[in-house]
Amino acid sequence: MNDLRTRIRARDSLRVGLGVAAGLMMLALLLVGAWLIRAALAPAQRAGEIPPAGPEEFLVLVAPFQHEGGEVYYFGMELANDLRQTPHVLGAYRVENLDYPPTEEDIPELFQAFGARVIVTGRYDDTMVEADLYFVPPDIPPPLPPESPGPPTTFFGLGPARYHLYAPRGIGHPLQYLQYWIIGQSHFWRGEFSEALRAFELAQQMLPAQTPVARRAAMDRFVAALLWSMGYVVGPVQDNWPVAYDLFHRSLALDATSLPSMLGVAQALVRTDRADQAIDLLQAALRSQPDAWQIYFALAEIKGQQGLTEEALALYDRAISLLSAEGSPQSQRALADVYFYRGYFYYELGDYQSALSDYQQARALGREDVYLLSNLGWTAYLVGDYETAAEASSQAAAQAPDRPDLQFNKGLHLLAAGRYDEARTAYEQAIQLTLTIDDPLTRSQYFGAAYYDLDDLAQRRPDLEAIIRELQHEIDVANG
């Protein structure tokens, strides 16, 4: 009987053992299956297999995170998959997984070879996750609202950046704030500012509640950059300067060396009627950054608005001199913008020849947007260079075919240049475009401006009076 009991116990133990083994095997298979699914979603690739970014593509490269202690986990793959699976942002960026953690020396080569905007690598142990975030923003500012003349002063401090990020281990998706920062940046640089702001606000909400003292300064730099991005959307884009001031000020408090944040505070001070405080801030900054052309440019803009012409022009000259000495492609684009702004300053002074010269210099440096072309065309018209006016205004109208004012300018300048048939066609198109506007007051304003511009041309070119009166009659008929 004892032998029988022993055999039964042995058989039951075997069953239990087999059951446990089967359960463990099933769990292992499930884990392996989950891993294979995740790997299928985000296969790590050798660098040579990753397609380079297209001209307007926002490419994100995510490397494996190095294990330095604690349970093994695939934080890099998780971040990449979370980015891929985020709803409503498909097409805003492309995410690729590297199959190795790059060294510091590898990073510039990866940016150059693939045209990436963001590279993320990192490490983790049993208590925390650390990420190295490398970011190279596009050289060209994001598209701004139609009424904007170009990049605001605060934009000119940007450049490549590296951030050292922290997250506590033990919470789900510890790098989710980085995920939403990347999403926000991809929207920001496409000019999708409302979507960008929502993503930035989510990133802010998901920041670690507490950061170890040893890592606080590095995280403060990242948070400062995040607040700057939010301030840019709220201020220059949405024109809510009191809130923008708060965001820029908080950004500068976290990173006192941030030139974009300081320029943002200065611009917000000017926009909230505190220009003298802005000047004090910028002049104090010059003591530690005497070769920062951005500060001279910002001061020139403020002095110009205050009517201090000689001081403003001297500051513009200093900014142009410093930029001209740099010689990089990025500095050349910035130089074009400074020439554009100084040209507008000359225009406001009534010095149209100097304004035209600066606009042409900006164009020679590569600026070909509608703001420059329309200003160049109108200024050339005022100095009597009608061919230049017609050419620039025609290009401006082509870039913004839905703007009646640009179509009317095109017709006016073609007429002044003696290209009568083209001018008639342009006026017909401008009139038809204006008639599509629902608001009668807006329609009347466009027609009225076009009518009086023709009156001005009649003073300049009395020989064109017959065709001018004919076109004015057509405008009157259309205006009812």
Mean pLDDT: 88
| Silhouette | elongated
What is the element string, with H for helices and E for strands?
A: HEEHEHEEEHHHHHHHHHHHHHHHH
Helix content: 55-70%
What attributes characterize this protein structure?
480 residues; alpha/beta; Serine Threonine Protein Phosphatase 5, Tetratricopeptide repeat; six-stranded mixed beta sheet; 64% helix
Describe the structure.
- This protein is elongated.
- It starts with a helix and ends with a helix.
- It has a 6-stranded mixed sheet, sandwiched between helices.
- It is an alpha/beta fold and 480 residues long.
- Helix 2 packs across helix 4 (176-188) and helix 18 packs antiparallel against helix 19.
- The longest helix has 40 residues, at 2-41.
- The protein has helices spanning 2-41, 75-85, 106-114, 176-188, 193-205, 213-237, 241-254, 259-271, 275-288, 293-305, 309-326, 329-349, 352-364, 370-382, 386-399, 404-416, 420-435, 440-460, 465-479, and strands at residues 44-45, 59-67, 94-98, 118-124, 128-135, 161-168.
- Helix content is 64%, strand content 8%.
- The protein has 3 domains: 1-41; 42-240, no CATH class; 368-480, Alpha Horseshoe (Serine Threonine Protein Phosphatase 5, Tetratricopeptide repeat), CATH 1.25.40.10.
